[in-house]
Amino acid sequence: MSPLRTLLVDDHPVVREGLRAMLAGDEVTVVAEAGTCADALRAIESHAIDLVLLDMQLPDGEGTTVLTALRARPTQPAVLVLSMHDDPTRVRRAMEAGARGWLLKGASRNELLAAMRAAVEGRTTLDPSLTPDPGEALTAVERRVLSRMAEGRTNREIADDLGWSVATVKKYAQRVFEKLDARDRTEAVATAVRRRIV
User: Fold this and answer.
1) Which residues contact 119 (CB under 8 A, 6 or more apart)?
2) What CA–CA distance (Å, rounded) separates 186 from 122?
3) Contact, 121 vs 129, CB < 8 A?
4) CA-to-CA distance for 99 and 149, rounded, in angstroms?
């Protein structure tokens, strides 16, 4: 397996130096480093790069600036965010802008290498601390709807039981589907049972 040609983007030289040392080996070749969004984009233009290891806070802007610029290119390297921040909003923005994953600084070498390889292969990796049990994200009301779905009740029956309109039941059901990453109620219930949410 050929080494991943990697660009390190972080505004702290000591962090880049640490990453370079950490990644030393046959799996990765660090072909360039950058400390700003502008330098990162210049490096991408002038080097053949498979993967960008990107910090999100840079002196001349957010890392999303780099991600957005890359989307306009016909060919683009994979991007893996390596950050000290675990803010869900930032994570979501980065993923929507094209990042292939988000790891927190402090990840082990093996975790980092696995996430880098996954990113280049088109798979997504999120730091385990960023992916709580989906059941914990459900509100009490959403759990009530889900438990009635698990009992096999129709939307009309759930609406009658809770004193709601069918439209309201559908609204909450849709929220449950989104939080459990389910396409329909059958998949939502199966996921809920498997994860012991109901």
Assistant:
1) 51, 78, 79, 80, 100, 101, 125
2) 28
3) no
4) 35
Least confident interval from 91-95, 98-102, 136-140, 190-194? 136-140
Domain identity same for 41 and 79: yes
Q: What percent of the chain has a predicted confidence (pLDDT) above 90?
A: 68
- The rounded distance, in Å, linking the Cα atoms of 36 and 59 is 6
**106 and 144 housed in the same domain:** no
Are both 143 and 113 inside the same structural domain? Answer: no
* 8 A C-beta contact, residue 173 and residue 185: yes
Residue with tokens 């060919």: 75
Distance CA 195, CA 146 (A): 13
- Nearest-CA neighbor of 129 among 109, 96, 106, 110? 106
Quick check: helix, strand or coil at residue 177? helix
Which range marks the domain in which residue 181 is found?
Answer: 134-194
> Please, which pLDDT band fits residue 136 given cuts at 50, 70 and 90?
low
- Those residues whose C-beta lies under 8 Å from the C-beta of residue 175, and which sit 6 or more positions away, are 142
121 and 62 within one domain = yes
Token match 């030393």: residue?
24
**How many separate domains does the chain show?**
2
CB atoms inside a 10 Å sphere around CB 18: 14
Instruction: Among 130, 152, 186, identify where a domain stops.
Output: 130
The secondary structure of residue 35, as a DSSP letter, is S
